[in-house]
Specification:
Blueprint: E1 5-7, E2 14-16, E3 43-44, E4 48-56, E5 60-67, E6 73-80, H1 87-105, E7 115-121, E8 124-130, E9 134-136, H2 137-143, H3 151-169, E10 185-188, E11 193-195, H4 233-249, H5 263-266, H6 272-281, H7 293-309, H8 333-345, H9 349-362, H10 367-379, H11 383-396, H12 401-413, H13 417-430, H14 435-447, H15 451-464, H16 469-481, H17 485-498, H18 503-515, H19 519-532, H20 537-549, H21 553-566, H22 571-583, H23 587-600, H24 605-617, H25 621-634, H26 639-651, H27 655-668, H28 673-685, H29 689-702, H30 707-719, H31 723-738
Helix pairs in contact: 3-4, 3-7, 4-6, 6-7, 8-9, 8-10, 9-10, 10-11, 10-12, 11-12, 12-13, 12-14, 13-14, 14-15, 14-16, 15-16, 16-17, 16-18, 17-18, 18-19, 18-20, 19-20, 20-21, 20-22, 21-22, 22-23, 22-24, 23-24, 24-25, 24-26, 25-26, 26-27, 26-28, 27-28, 28-29, 28-30, 29-30, 30-31
Length: 740
C-alpha cells in the first residue's frame, strides 16, 4: 500500500501525513489527523471511556462512551477533524469551537441532545453529549424500502421540528440550524425526534468562512445558502419544507435541487392546506416564505386537528372555508362532517350543530360526529349536553383523545372536578405529549386548590407546546393566586406575545396589576380587553374592583351592574355587587346579590362567607351559622369564616364551640387580632381568666391601638383581682379613646 503524503506549500517537499513541520525547510504543515481511529477503551479527559465508534463523516466521528465519573452513564463523544487547516486556521477554529460549545451547552429543549462537556486533547477537539438510542430519519427511510411516511407521522414530526426550531430562532443570540436534513434528525426508540448536529464541525472546514453551501446540504439547503446572502430563520423554514416534502413524497431533493412537484400530485393523501404551506416554505425568495416557524406550526397543528376530526380537505375536495354549500340530498356523512367542521371553525355554531345532527342521522355510530357535536355544544356554553355527546363518542371509540379532552373540560365546567381529572389523565395515558390534556389537567388541579400541582401541569403543557397561549395564561392565573405577581405578569405577557387578541390574557394581566396597586396600568389592560370585546364582563368587573379599592363605591356598583347586564350568569360580579351593597348599608340588596351568586356557583366559599356576614349583621345568627358552615365545607382554610362562625356561636351562647372556631382561625392566621380579641372574650365567659388575659395580651401585641383589646385585658384582670393592673388598662382605654 502506498504511503500517503502531504506537500509543503513553501518548498514543495513531500512529507508523511502525520508530520507537523516540513522535513526540508521546517515550515509548519497543516495538521492532518483523520478522525474515527481511536480504539475501544480509550480514556479521554481522564473520564470518558470509548465503547465503540457509531458514526463517521468527512469532518468528524462519533463514539459511544461511558462517563466514569457519573455512574458509568452512557454518553456520545463527537471528535472533530482538522484536516486541511493551517496553524492560524486551527487557532481560529479552536476559539470558535470554544464559543459555540458554550452557546450550545446552555440550550435545554426536549428535542435537543444536552451537551455536557467540551475539551481539546492530543490536538483533537471533542464534544460530550446525550447518547440517543435510535436511528436517523435517513436510516428510517432507507429501511422503509421506499414506502411513504403516513400523514399522521409527518405532522407529528413536523410539529416537533417546528417547536425546536422556534426555540433556536428565539434564543438570544438567535441560532440558525442551517443543515436540516434526514441525516441530522434522530428518532429515539419511543418515536421522539432530536436534532443531532449543530454543525460545529463546519468551524473546522477550511475555506468556509462565508455562509455558503458548505453550511447546508444540496437539495435541503435554501438558495441563499449557495451564495453570499446570510442565512436566516427562513433558511431553516425552507429546509424544513424540503424535509417534509421528502417524507410525504419519497423524492430526494438532492437529486434535483430547487425543483419540487406539488406533493399531492405524488401522494393523494396530502391535504390541500398542506400543499399550499409547502409551496410557501419552498419559495425561492426569502420574503415569500412564512415569517417564522410558529406560523408553520400553527398550520400543521390545524391540519392535524382536521385529521383527528375527519374533516381534512384533499385537493380534489378543496373549497374556500368561507363558502359552505346549502344542504342537498344525497351527500354522505363525511361531507356533512367537513361542512360542520368548517362552520364550527368560523363559530357558526347553530349551523354546525345542524350539520353534525344530519351526519348522526345518517350514521349514529360515527364517533367523530358525536365528538364534533360535543365541541360545538361546549363552545355554546351547553356543557351538560356537550358532556353527553363526548360520552357517546367515547362509548364508540374509547381512545378518542379530543373527546376525552372535551369530556374533561365539560366536567370541569360542571364542577365535577375529580371526574374531569380522570378524563384528562386517561387522555395523557394515551398520548403523553398532549399539551391540551396537560393544560386541562392543570385547570382542574387549580379548581381542586392544588396550585403547585396545577403549575407543574401547565409547565408540562408548555414543555410540549411552548406556543400554547392558553397554558401561559392559566399559569399566570395560578401564580396570581399564589401572589407571585411578577412571575404571573411575565406569564400573561408571554401569552400576549403569542396572541394579542386573547381577552382572558389581557384580563389576567389587569387583575395582577390591580392587585399590585398599579391601578393606571391595570385600567390600560382592561381597556385592551374592552377594545376587543366591549361586553366582556370580567374586565368590567375588574374596573369595578379598582374603583372599589379607591372607595368609589357608587362607581364600582355601576361597573358591577354593567358586567351583569353583559353576563347575568357571572357569579363573581354578583358577589362583588353584594360587597358594595353591604358597604353602602343596603343589607337586603346585598343578601339578594349573594343569593344570585350562589344560585350560579353553589360551591363558592367566598360567597357563602359574605352571605353569612350579612346574616350576622341582620342578627339572623342561626342562618349565619349555617352559611359559615357551608363556606368552610367548600374551603376550610378561610380564617375569616372560622372567626365569623365563632361570633355566631358566641351570640347563640355556645361558648365552647365559639372557642373552637376562634382557635381554628388562629391556626390559619396567628396574626388575626380580631380572633385573639374574640377568644379572650369567650374565655372570660367560660371563666378561664388566665387564658383570657393571655389572649387579650396577644391581641394587644397585634393591635395595640385598639381600645377593645385593652378592655378585654381590663376585664380579665378584674376577674383575677389584679386591680392596679386593671386600672392601668382602663387608663389606656381612656387615652386611646381621647386620641391622646
Amino acid at each position: 500500500m502506498a504511503t500517503q503524503e502531504q506537500f509543503c506549500e513553501h518548498c514543495g517537499a513531500a512529507n508523511v501525513m502525520t508530520a507537523r513541520f516540513c522535513q526540508n525547510c521546517a515550515t509548519p504543515l497543516p495538521f492532518n489527523h483523520l478522525t474515527g481511529d481511536l480504539p475501544e477503551q480509550t480514556m479521554l479527559s481522564n473520564r470518558y471511556e470509548l465503547v465503540m465508534r457509531i458514526g463517521q463523516g468527512g469532518m468528524g466521528a462519533v463514539y459511544k462512551a461511558i462517563d466514569t465519573r457519573f455512574n458509568n452513564r452512557t454518553i456520545a463523544v463527537k471528535e472533530m477533524s482538522r484536516v486541511g487547516l493551517t496553524q492560524p486556521q486551527i487557532q481560529e477554529a479552536e476559539a470558535a469551537f470554544e464559543r459555540e460549545s458554550h452557546l450550545l451547552a446552555d440550550l435545554l429543549h426536549p428535542n435537543l441532545p444536552r451537551i455536557y462537556d467540551h475539551f481539546n486533547e492530543e490536538e483533537r477537539s471533542y464534544l460530550v453529549m446525550d447518547f440517543i438510542e435510535g436511528q436517523t430519519l435517513d436510516e428510517y427511510l432507507e429501511k422503509s424500502g421506499g414506502s411513504l411516511v403516513s400523514l399522521e407521522q409527518v405532522l407529528l414530526w413536523g410539529e416537533q421540528l417546528c417547536d425546536v426550531l422556534a426555540y433556536l430562532h428565539n434564543h438570544q443570540p438567535p441560532i440558525v440550524f442551517r443543515d436540516l436534513k434526514p441525516q441530522n434528525v434522530m428518532i429515539s426508540e419511543n418515536g421522539h425526534l432530536y436534532l443531532i448536529d449543530f454543525g460545529i464541525a463546519r468551524i473546522f472546514k477550511p475555506g468556509q468562512s462565508h455562509d455558503t453551501v458548505a453550511l447546508g446540504s444540496p437539495g435541503f439547503a435554501a438558495p441563499e445558502q449557495y451564495g453570499k446572502a446570510q442565512s436566516t430563520p427562513r433558511s431553516d423554514i425552507y429546509s424544513l419544507g424540503a424535509l417534509l416534502h421528502c417524507l410525504l413524497t419519497g423524492v430526494d431533493p438532492s437529486e434535483q435541487p430547487f425543483f419540487f412537484q406539488r406533493a399531492s400530485s405524488l401522494n393523494p393523501e396530502v391535504p390541500a392546506e398542506l400543499d399550499v404551506l409547502l409551496t410557501k416554505m419552498l419559495a425561492m425568495t426569502v420574503e415569500d416564505r412564512p415569517a417564522n416557524v410558529q406560523e408553520v406550526d400553527k398550520v400543521l397543528h390545524h391540519i392535524d386537528q382536521q385529521r383527528i376530526s375527519g374533516t381534512l380537505s384533499l385537493p380534489s375536495q378543496a373549497r374556500p372555508y368561507s363558502v359552505v354549500p346549502p344542504l342537498t340530498p344525497g351527500r354522505n356523512t363525511n361531507q356533512y362532517l367537513q361542512e360542520a367542521y368548517q362552520q364550527y371553525s368560523q363559530r357558526h355554531l347553530k349551523e354546525a350543530l345542524v350539520l353534525y345532527d344530519r351526519a348522526l342521522k345518517d350514521d349514529a355510530q360515527n364517533p367523530v360526529a358525536w365528538q364534533g357535536r360535543g365541541l360545538t355544544l361546549a363552545l355554546s356554553g351547553q356543557h351538560r349536553e356537550a358532556l353527553a355527546s363526548f360520552e357517546q363518542a367515547l362509548k364508540i371509540d374509547a381512545n378518542l383523545i379530543t373527546a376525552l379532552n372535551g369530556k374533561g373540560t365539560a366536567l370541569n365546567m360542571l364542577h365535577r372536578n375529580q371526574e374531569a381529572l380522570d378524563a384528562f389523565d386517561r387522555a395523557i395515558l394515551l398520548e403523553q405529549d398532549n399539551a391540551i390534556a396537560w393544560n386541562g389537567k392543570g385547570a382542574v388541579l387549580s379548581a381542586l386548590r392544588q396550585p403547585d400541582n396545577a403549575l407543574k401541569a401547565f409547565e408540562t403543557a408548555l414543555h410540549f407546546d411552548r406556543y400554547m397561549a392558553q397554558a401561559w395564561s392559566n399559569k399566570g392565573l395560578v401564580l396570581r393566586q399564589q401572589r407571585r405577581y411578577e412571575e404571573a405578569l411575565r406569564a400573561f405577557d408571554q401569552a400576549l406575545s403569542l396572541d394579542r387578541d386573547v381577552v382572558s390574557s389581557w384580563n389576567g394581566k389587569g387583575l395582577v396589576l390591580g392587585e399590585m396597586g398599579q391601578d393606571k396600568e391595570a385600567l390600560l389592560a382592561y381597556e385592551e380587553v374592552l377594545k376587543r370585546d366591549p361586553k366582556y364582563a370580567p374586565a368590567l368587573c375588574g374596573i369595578g374592583d379598582i374603583l372599589y379599592n379607591q372607595r368609589k363605591l357608587r362607581g364600582a356598583k355601576d361597573r358591577y351592574e354593567q358586567a351583569l347586564a353583559c353576563d347575568p350568569r357571572f357569579a363573581k360580579a354578583w358577589e362583588r355587587r353584594a360587597i358594595v351593597m353591604t358597604d353602602l348599608g343596603n343589607l337586603t340588596e346585598a343578601l339578594k346579590s349573594y343569593d344570585d351568586a350562589l344560585r350560579l356557583d353553589p360551591r363558592s366559599s367566598s360567597a357563602w362567607n359574605g352571605k353569612a356576614s350579612v346574616l350576622f349583621q341582620l342578627e339572623r345568627y342561626e342562618q349565619a351559622l349555617d352559611a359559615y358552615s357551608r363556606a368552610l365545607q367548600y374551603n376550610a382554610a378561610i380564617p375569616q369564616a372560622w372567626n365569623g362562625q365563632g361570633n355566631a356561636y358566641y351570640f347563640l351562647s355556645n361558648y365552647e364551640q365559639a372557642l373552637n372556631s376562634y382557635e381554628q382561625a388562629l391556626r390559619l392566621n396567628p396574626r388575626m387580632a380580631s380572633a385573639q380579641h374574640n377568644k379572650s372574650l369567650v374565655l372570660k365567659h367560660l371563666q378561664r381568666y388566665e387564658e383570657a388575659l393571655a389572649a387579650a395580651n396577644d391581641a394587644i401585641m397585634l393591635a395595640p391601638t385598639d381600645p377593645d383589646n385593652w378592655r378585654r385585658k381590663a376585664e380579665a384582670l378584674k376577674k383575677l383581682r389584679r386591680g392596679r393592673e386593671a386600672r392601668a388598662a382602663e387608663a389606656e382605654i381612656v387615652r386611646l379613646n381621647s386620641g391622646a
